[in-house]
């Protein structure tokens, strides 16, 4: 029951928390960004930009909901709730794109680790 009802509702928030953690952890020595930044700086930026979009999606969505509700001539509460619901699920879309890009990044990281271990 939890898998059918609770998981789909908690996944966007978990993606948001993981994006916050990834952005705050990007400077640590064991992160993919610091290990591959010399060889693939544009690719690291491309993956990291999705984390930034995920993190900024909630504040922008909340502001957009307020402004849309204020500007609506009628049914402003329905518009407000509709935009908030759509905003809540935006991290799913951006998280999917980030994960697709990050798969290749992880493969590159593992190949680098394997090449270091095989030469030692």
The overall pLDDT, averaged over residues, is 82
Calculate Rg over CA atoms. Answer: 19 Å
Oligomer: single chain
- Percent of residues in beta strands? under 5%
Element pattern in H and E: HHHH
| Shape label | elongated
Q: How many strand segments?
A: 0
The largest β sheet comes out as:
none
Count every helix, treating DSSP H or I runs of 4 or more residues as helices. Answer: 4
Separation of the first and last Cα atoms: 50 Å
SSE-based structural type: mainly alpha
Fraction in helix: over 70%
Pick out the low-confidence regions: none
What does this structure look like?
By secondary structure, the chain is mainly α. The protein has a domain of 80 residues. It is 86% helix and 0% strand. Helix 1 crosses helix 3 and helix 3 runs antiparallel to helix 4. It starts with a helix and ends with a helix.
């Amino acid at each position: 029951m939890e898998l059918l009802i609770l998981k789909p509702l908690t996944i966007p928030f978990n993606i948001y928390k993981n994006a916050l953690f990834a952005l705050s952890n990007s400077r640590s020595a064991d992160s993919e960004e610091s290990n591959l930044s010399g060889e693939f700086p544009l690719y690291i930026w491309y993956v990291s930009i999705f984390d930034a979009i995920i993190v900024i999606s909630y504040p922008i969505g909340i502001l957009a909901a307020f402004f849309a509700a204020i500007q609506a001539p009628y049914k402003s509460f329905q518009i407000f709730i509709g935009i908030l619901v759509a905003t809540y699920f935006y991290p799913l879309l951006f998280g999917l794109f980030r994960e697709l890009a990050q798969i290749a990044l992880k493969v590159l990281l593992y190949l680098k680790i394997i090449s270091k271990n095989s030469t030692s």
